[in-house]
Write a structure and sequence with these properties.
The chain has 96 residues and is α+β, with helices and mostly antiparallel strands. Helices cover 40% and strands 11% of the residues.
């Protein structure tokens, strides 16, 4: 099999208009979305809801928010970590 240059395809590049290629973001809309995201990230589940979930899963209400615990405490106590809500559910009702 030999190489024949006539078998190659000729592709003509036609660039898109700049307006069509990148969607334009309205600054007001962007600020609104940033505010919603920030509100979601800083909103914690209410304590009574976490108590109910912990009681249902483990039969007790021994839990803590991830921001209030140290790695040393996690290493000494078996637990389940909910990364989306930022909650650590301890498997035992008492900490070691």
């Amino acid at each position: 099999m030999s190489y024949d240059p006539e078998d190659e395809l000729l592709i003509e590049w036609i660039p898109e208009d700049d307006e069509d290629a990148v969607p334009v973001f309205d600054e007001d809309v962007e600020e609104e979305w940033d505010a919603k995201i920030q509100t979601f990230n800083t909103t914690d589940l209410p304590t009574f809801m976490v108590d109910k979930m912990c009681k249902k899963k483990f039969g007790h209400t021994n839990w803590v928010r991830m921001s209030n615990i140290e790695a040393r405490e996690l290493a000494m106590n078996p637990c389940v970590i909910d990364y989306t809500e930022g909650i650590v559910y301890f498997k035992n009702s008492r900490l070691v």
